[in-house]
Amino acid sequence: MELLRIATAGSVDDGKSTLIGRLLYDSKAIYDDVLDSAERHSRKQSSEYFNLALLTDGLKAEREQGITIDVAYRYFSTPKRKFILADTPGHVQYTRNMVTGASTADVALIIVDARHGVVEQSRRHAVISALLGIKHVVVCINKMDLVDFKEDVFRTIQNDLHALLTELEIDSHHFIPISALQGDNVVVKSDRMPWYIDGPLLPHLEDLVLPDKSENAPLRFPVQYVIRPLSNEYHDYRGYAGTIASGRVEVGQEIAVLPSGATTTVTAIDTPEGEASSASEGDAVTIRISDNLDISRGAMLSGTSERPTTDNSFDATICWMSERTTLKPGLMLRIKHATHTARAMVSEIECRVDINSLSNVGFCDELSLNEIGQVTLRTSEPLVFDKYADVRGTGSFILIDESTNETVGAGMIGRPPFLGSDQG
Amino acid sequence: MNSPEKSNSELLTSSQLRALEAESIHIIREVVAEFERPGLLFSGGKDSIVMLHLAVKALRPAKLPFPIVHIDTGHNFPEAIEYRDRTATNLGIELVIGSVPDALESGRVQASTLPGASRNRLQTPVLLDTIRDGKFDAVFGGARRDEERARAKERVYSFRDEFGQWDPKNQRPELWNLYNGFTNTGQHIRVFPLSNWTELDIWQYILEEGIELPSIYFAHERQVFERDGMLMAYSEFLKPENGEKVFTETVRFRTVGDMTITAGQKSNATTLEQVIAEIAVARVSERGASRADDRTADAAMEDRKREGYF
């Protein structure tokens, strides 16, 4: 089993922090002194029960105000698997954080309060997960203790969300009735819901199988850095360092260098563990080739067939993240795509997307903080890219404000199929 | 599914460590490609040792194109200093030292006369001076997010303003593996390639890679005394007070910091395997167990980080 990266989101009240606290506590990822500190604080707030949520609260500011302001990363592991959990607040003004947390996740963990059913926030989390290309969703229907562990409450919520997830083309989804506070179906199977025959949450996450991404995927290798030791021992060494964004590379394979289009042959692959005959997605390697070509950072290596697109204009879905400015046609920005940094200009904003109704709001002339829209960008140099739906690593980019240097936008090339077409 | 349990779990550890390794190498290469003058903070502690090991792997067979930087409180374990110097010599790289004793002598910083005060906080101005004087625009740090709650919220690329300050509410969103390293003159980025590693990952990686560590990480006999329930090493920098008794104990250190604030623990673990076995069942976090500086207040780290600390 590989490392599993999970993104979760929720509001202050739906029990998300309690659930994470429970996972950390029951999987013994919480040390006694951290527990003591949370307990001390629990007493300070005169809570009647030990507040598991305090285990995950980060900053002094947050503890005082009882809020979560940002993405926090949590780590826990079981004998079977190591987990990295990106924990974000789920409120509408935190769309930016949810997008950030989801960008690196394999699985989305959606938490629904059994008493309230599917609310706007649950929908938003599902839509953002789909937008960011997450293939697996696990829905925890929490606070079952407060609805007397009734099956029909669970089934109603399951049916509602099932329809939405199907519409979003997330086929791998799973529903679990839990009580985070009392520990039902989190780590240990609850005996208070005999109608639920599947296992609890943690074993489900432990056994979740991710598809082997390298299989049949096209090779994409953004060149990150050129290694030239210029030493006596390695006088002629010239290697192209980078992380394989997709597919697989083998020694002897014929490859294309983009954007130039030149072709060459892989002569060696240096991995952190020494020379290897092949490498695949996620590996940080150094590739050596047979020809003396002019290749620098920002170039892309691919197979000779199934090449990526090279263009200086493309459509993309953008989540705008700036508190100070809005995204408008004509706005000039820096774009960082794979290992290539260039300038980008917004040529058109096609529509804004209402992520709650999944509908396209139609024409709009700007995107402000936490808004998502479909835009056309033009870049100062051609980029070598794929659609985000096809290759995450070569279909994603960030936008950077040229004066403040802040990251102001996240972009995914192409158009998510579930968004529907422009109504004009 | 048919293979025996043990080899499965060994394979598991290995594949997960390789994923973490690849991620760290990616981050290190990004910095070397995009910044003009990076530096790597190196204390001789296990995290900075692993970080340096990863940097060497990320760029080999080329020599490291940046110096290692040590902020020296003057209260170090001699074993860590010896390790630091030997490592710099072996790798043939520059060692930049920011010296707290020098800063005290020149009056740049003032030692606190309060009881229990350490030189911990004095490191911040010295660190910031060293970064400014060395014109470093990116500084690698070995901090991990599992260490402490303020760290859990910090980015891999952590922006620092002209005053070296961290503003937790005003951090750049960090998406995919696309890091934004743009800064203006006088600002810099702290880069944490080990963000996603846990303490156990670090130890297992050290074992798998056969990385040498300073001897204080393994059980040895040492003169210690007990303070606030922690075993402090007796040294010229830290002496017992108010009837605290010095005795000999077999201890190892779980972190390597300033001698006046780093506590040891009773242990008989003399090999990496034994240390890992102890950590796997430990019930106290490494900072809680061994860092007197973090016990001062719940938000001690958050406050120090805001000022520009590691």
List keywords for this structure.
heterodimer; A: 424 residues; alpha+beta; eight-stranded antiparallel β-sheet; six-stranded mixed β-sheet; 19% helix; globular; B: 310 residues; alpha/beta; four-stranded antiparallel barrel; 9 helices; 10 strands
Q: What features would you describe in this structure?
A:
The complex is a heterodimer of chains A (424) and B (310). In chain A, strands 7, 8, 9, 11, 12, 13, 15 and 16 form an 8-stranded antiparallel β-sheet that branches. In chain A, strands 2-3-1-4-5-6 form a 6-stranded mixed β-sheet, sandwiched between helices. With 424 residues, chain A is an alpha+beta fold. In chain A, strand 22 and strand 23 form a beta hairpin. Chain A has 8 helices and 23 strands. In chain A, 51% of the residues are buried. Chain B is α/β, with parallel strands linked by helices and 310 residues long. Chain B has a 6-stranded mixed β-sheet with strand order 3-2-1-4-6-5, with helices on both faces. A 4-stranded antiparallel barrel of chain B has the order 7-8-10-9. In chain B, helix 6 runs antiparallel to helix 7. The N terminus of chain B is likely disordered. Classes of the chains: A alpha+beta (424), B alpha/beta (310).
Q: Widest sheet of chain B: strand order? A: 3-2-1-4-6-5
What would you call the structural class of chain B?
Answer: alpha/beta
Classify the helix fraction of chain A into a percent range: 10-25%
Taking the sheet with the most strands of chain A, its summary is: 8 strands, antiparallel
Could you say which overall geometry of chain A the principal axes of the C-alpha atoms support?
Answer: globular
The outline of chain B comes out as globular
Number of helices of chain A: 8
Gap between N and C termini of chain A: 47 Å
**Low-confidence parts of chain B, pLDDT < 50 over ≥5 residues?**
1-7
Share of residues in strands of chain B: 15-25%
The ordered H/E elements of chain B are: HEHEHEHHEEEHEEEEHHH
Poorly predicted parts of chain A: 45-49
Radius of gyration of chain A: 24 Å
